[in-house]
């Protein structure tokens, strides 16, 4: 029986361990934190240690499956390399063992909505599942004989995929993020680029024609663009219609007015999903009906409800300025009150402040970042700034001022006031709904 090491009692670690055990491997799961072992895993015969990584667990392993939260320069990864034990991600494990085609979706922002919408369309015609960074690990479905994995892939996961070759690779956009984990922005770019280049080049690549780093990015295989027409292989909006073009042949897929998602960035997410669906052979009627009934994932420019004439949108997932800027630019010609702030990532605020000047009437700042955000906003010439001691107090200011839109798009992490961006978004939704 071959010994395999699994790193971390994360969701993906547990799924990988169960999948490997089911397929006859002798599984050793090692967790650095001092937490209680999982009784279900122990009962199945999986060896578990917590509070550190022992040599006894490491030595003799055929390979190791790592969790995405473990950096590639960590002590345990370096130890495995020294002992010539290959390290792969849980996604790579599923690719090798199931051979189910991957529709791989990556990017700094927008990948979750794109993944959810693409999977929603695929499920109308195929046995397909949204998986990966969006929710359930693909190991949970590896024995289900799926037609497709529609997989949100973080840069962490891709970095540990040495052979995974998708059917379609989608790159939504590229902005600085996760620089510490990758030890530099170019390493971050290179990690994502792996699944677009030989020897892991997909049959089809889908790239953002509006992104400075991606519009001229050279890939191997057939390329489709979204956001604007770049070649004869594109999906874009013209005359308020989603248009799909392959080899110069134009198809009108659906009116923009039938799309339930808000904002230019969501139109781009929709274009990505249309391209993937068309490449998989799904007809326009099915695509159109699936998009019309789709609901945006929670915390991603999610419509909450109205108080009087004011519409409230929860974009708590916008944990960096670039993501918040996308939401900010979604409400043209409206009186918008923006709630921003939280734990600062200390990235540049120049473009974020410029976008606020062009699209936002009032900003309410909360959390640890409030002082730096105010300083940068005033330096940019924006003056209509308020402060609130809590998220609820910020919402109250929105109710009092009665703008067209109150938008929570914090441009910051949540950990100064909340356990996660999900909790922050839930508090926002619950408080708004309590006032309706």
Strand arrangement in the largest pleated sheet: 7-8-6-9-10-11-12-13-14
Strand percentage, roughly?
Answer: 15-25%
| Strand segment tally | 20
Distance between the termini: 61 Å
Radius of gyration: 23 Å
Instruction: Let me know the average pLDDT.
Output: 94
Oligomer: single chain
Task: Give a short account of the largest sheet.
Answer: 9 strands, mixed
Protein topology:
Elements: E1 3-7, H1 11-22, E2 26-31, H2 39-43, E3 47-50, H3 55-58, E4 63-66, H4 75-82, E5 87-89, H5 90-98, E6 102-106, H6 111-122, E7 128-132, E8 148-152, H7 155-159, E9 168-171, H8 179-182, H9 185-193, E10 204-208, E11 222-226, E12 234-238, E13 241-246, E14 249-255, H10 264-279, H11 284-292, E15 302-307, E16 310-314, H12 321-328, E17 336-340, H13 350-359, E18 362-365, H14 370-380, E19 385-387, H15 391-401, E20 405-408, H16 421-435
Parallel strand pairs: 1-2, 1-4, 2-3, 4-5, 6-8, 6-9, 7-8, 9-10, 10-11, 11-12, 16-20, 17-18, 17-20, 18-19
Antiparallel strand pairs: 12-13, 13-14, 15-16
Helix pairs in contact: 6-10, 12-13
Question: Can you walk me through this structure?
Answer:
- With 436 residues, the protein is α/β, with parallel strands linked by helices.
- Helix content is 34%, strand content 22%.
- A nine-stranded mixed β-sheet has the order 7-8-6-9-10-11-12-13-14, covered by helices on one side.
- Strand 13 and strand 14 form a beta hairpin.
- The protein is globular.
């Amino acid at each position: 029986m071959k010994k395999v090491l699994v790193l971390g009692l994360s969701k993906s670690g547990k799924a990988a361990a169960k999948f490997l055990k089911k397929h006859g491997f002798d599984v050793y799961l090692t967790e650095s934190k001092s937490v209680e072992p999982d009784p279900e895993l122990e009962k199945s015969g999986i060896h578990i240690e917590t509070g550190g990584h022992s040599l006894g667990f490491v030595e003799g392993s055929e390979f190791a499956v790592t969790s995405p939260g473990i950096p590639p320069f960590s002590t345990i990864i370096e130890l495995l390399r020294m002992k010539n034990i290959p390290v792969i991600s849980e996604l790579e494990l599923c690719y090798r063992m199931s051979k189910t085609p991957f529709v791989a979706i990556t990017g700094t922002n927008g990948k979750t909505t794109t993944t959810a919408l693409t999977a929603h369309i695929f499920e109308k015609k195929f046995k397909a599942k949204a998986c990966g960074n969006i929710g359930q690990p693909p190991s949970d479905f590896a024995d289900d004989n799926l037609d497709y994995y529609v997989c949100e892939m973080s840069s962490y996961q891709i970095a540990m995929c040495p052979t995974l070759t998708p059917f379609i690779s989608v790159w939504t956009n590229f902005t600085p993020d996760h620089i510490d984990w990758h030890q530099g922005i170019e390493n971050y770019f290179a990690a994502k680029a792996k699944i677009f280049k030989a020897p892991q080049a997909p049959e089809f690549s889908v790239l953002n024609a509006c992104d400075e780093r991606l519009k001229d990015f050279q890939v191997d295989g057939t390329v489709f663009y979204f956001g604007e027409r770049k070649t004869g292989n594109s999906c874009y909006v013209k005359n308020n219609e989603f248009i799909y073009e392959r080899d110069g042949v134009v198809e009108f897929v659906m009116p923009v007015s039938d799309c339930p998602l808000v904002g230019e960035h969501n139109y781009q997410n929709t274009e990505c999903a249309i391209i993937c669906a068309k490449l998989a052979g799904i007809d326009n009627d099915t695509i159109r009906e699936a998009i019309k009934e789709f609901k945006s994932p929670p915390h991603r420019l999610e419509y909450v409800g109205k108080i009087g004439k004011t519409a409230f949108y929860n974009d708590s997932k916008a944990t960096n300025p670039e993501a918040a800027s996308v939401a900010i630019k979604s409400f043209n010609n409206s009186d918008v009150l923006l709630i921003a702030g939280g734990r600062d990532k200390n990235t540049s605020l120049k473009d974020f402040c410029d976008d606020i000047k062009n699209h936002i009437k009032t900003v309410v700042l909360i959390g640890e970042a409030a002082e730096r955000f105010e300083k940068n906003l005033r330096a940019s010439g924006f003056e209509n700034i308020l402060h609130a001691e809590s998220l609820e107090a910020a919402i109250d200011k929105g109710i009092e001022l009665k703008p067209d839109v109150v938008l929570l798009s914090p441009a910051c992490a949540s950990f100064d006031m909340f356990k996660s961006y999900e909790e922050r978004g839930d508090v926002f939704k619950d408080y708004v709904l309590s006032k309706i």
